[in-house]
Amino acid sequence: MRHAILIWIYVTMVACQIVSQDLADMNPLLYNDRALKGPGVIARVTPTGTQYVASVVAAAFSSHFADIKPPKERKDHQLTSAPTVTLRRLMLETLQLDKQLVSTTTSDGLLRIAVRNISVSTSAVLSGELRGIKLQDSVTFRTPSLRLDVAIRIMKNVGGNPALKMETCKITTQGIKLITKPMDPRNGKSLADAIANDANSIFSDMICSKIGHIVTNRVNQRFALLSSRISLEDSKNFDIVKIIMQAEERMKRLVRQNRLRSNQTIRRNVHAHNARRVSRDPVRGKRQMDEDKFHLILNSFNFSRADSLMLDYSMITSPSLTSRGIELQTSGEVFQSGHVTPFGAGPIFLPRVPNPSQMLQIVVSDFVPNALMFHGHRIKLFDTRIDWTTPQFGPVMKTTCDLSTGSLFCIGDLFPALREMLPDRNIAFVFTTLKAPAVIVQPEEKGGIHFSLLGLIRLVSDRNEPIGEMEIRIEALMKMKLTPKSVKGKVTIEEIQFTSRSPRILLQEELDDAGFLSREILQRMVNDILRQGIPIPIHPLFKLVKPKLTLMSRSLLLETNFLLNEHIIAQLTAETLVA
């Protein structure tokens, strides 16, 4: 009981310390967001975008039909209207489709895909007899007007990535052309009619089984290997095929290790059984078991840099498929490995009606940039230094300036007391954030994007001597610029306040006068913090094209068209990946 109380006290103290540190690091603008738990991003693939995606995927599927060999694929078919004849060794030779003839609808949680005028060629060997004539010829039958109707359910797998399930698959043909060696005309017509009568069933068995095999054993298995969390560094040049290939290799290696470990365990168990016959040492046995467990735990860990920032684009729930398109809710959180974000995203909403001219609508909560800046603050991502070697600002970072120095204005003009104490010296500003910066997004008519920052500037001489410190508080307006991969901000400072921590050398009255004069330097410093941009947390398969940005309450609406990497889509459906 005493141990339980001590553990409870210890855990409570640690929890209080973590909460206290979170509050110390959080920007006060976000205190009311601590209880929020909504998605950081919601997205809608509009009907226009859905049809485009389906056409790309259908084309990728068609290019791999020949190399797909499902384990349960039917090879033989007995003709219904000519039961003495069997088609053996059925094989799909060619399948060609036009992407322009792919159409889609979304409703009732299903993505329905229809493809018209598919050209299909199939070969088989005739077996049996017809009108007393033994049949053993090879035949080919073709149709230029096959129609495929497939219903796909899109779900969320355990890793937060998409998982597909083929619910229905239907084939409809409108006549076939039979190609065979010369035979009795009556038999030729009877065979053509019998095959045409069974064509829907024959092609359904062959094509639908292949689609199911691709979905289950290629696409789903590969998405299951793909992590829904990637480092910000990797997100800049994300190679999905390479990542999946590496994951497949790790999986194969793990299977080999498990087999080896299983064999070693069997041998160890036999050895332990024999040892117990000689010695009954329960302490030693328990110690060996604990060591085995410890090694298994170590082998399951994936050690990474503690200060890395990760982007989580995992789906929170399964997608919603309605007449508006495919709608998804994703985390969108930027986080530090091993740490939690102490605040969340508030309610965000997609437009009620899809934009018919755009393929994709994305609403990004201001939780996403705030999470980035919170964890970035913790790992000192925004620390920066401006000194006499900094381009454009080097000549300004001096305590004394005149015509002979090449600059008519310098830091000494802002801080006369500093100039008198340390004349003719070079000065460095070393900046660090005291709390995480924050942005609050509102519509343009309500002020737009408000940026808040509290930091510390340490002044250091060219001899690396500490001179003094001052706090800086900045309130600014931010303008956003979109790129296909990120949202980049640029601030215009509205208010600057300095507070001296070294009042003997950095006089408060001088700091009060310095705000206006130092605006350009400080805007440069803040914009350097934001120069890397805020990543748009969408799946790496998408490349945005000319995104349009609209400010909403606590969120950004991005409306855009997009391109899918058709080579990568084809790779994901292929039997073997190639880097």
Descriptive keywords:
alpha+beta, Bactericidal permeability-increasing protein, domain 1, Bactericidal permeability-increasing protein, domain 2, eight-stranded antiparallel sheet, 24 strands, 34% helix, elongated, Bactericidal_perm-incr_a/b_dom, Lipid-bd_serum_glycop_C, Lipid-binding serum glycoprotein C-terminal domain-containing protein
Structural account:
- It contains twelve helices and 24 strands.
- With 579 residues, the chain is α+β, with helices and mostly antiparallel strands.
- The chain has two domains: 179 residues, Bactericidal permeability-increasing protein, domain 1, CATH 3.15.10; 240 residues, Super Roll (Bactericidal permeability-increasing protein, domain 2), CATH 3.15.20.
- The strands form four sheets. Strands 2, 3, 4, 5, 6, 7, 8 and 9 form an eight-stranded antiparallel sheet that branches. Strands 16, 17, 18, 19, 20, 21 and 22 form a seven-stranded antiparallel sheet that branches.
- The longest helix has 41 residues.
- The relative contact order is 0.13.
- Pfam families: LBP_BPI_CETP_C (PF02886).
- InterPro entries: Bactericidal_perm-incr_a/b_dom, BPI/LBP/Plunc, Lipid-bd_serum_glycop_C, Lipid-bd_serum_glycop_N.
- Belongs to the BPI/LBP/Plunc superfamily. BPI/LBP family.
- GO terms for molecular function: lipid binding.
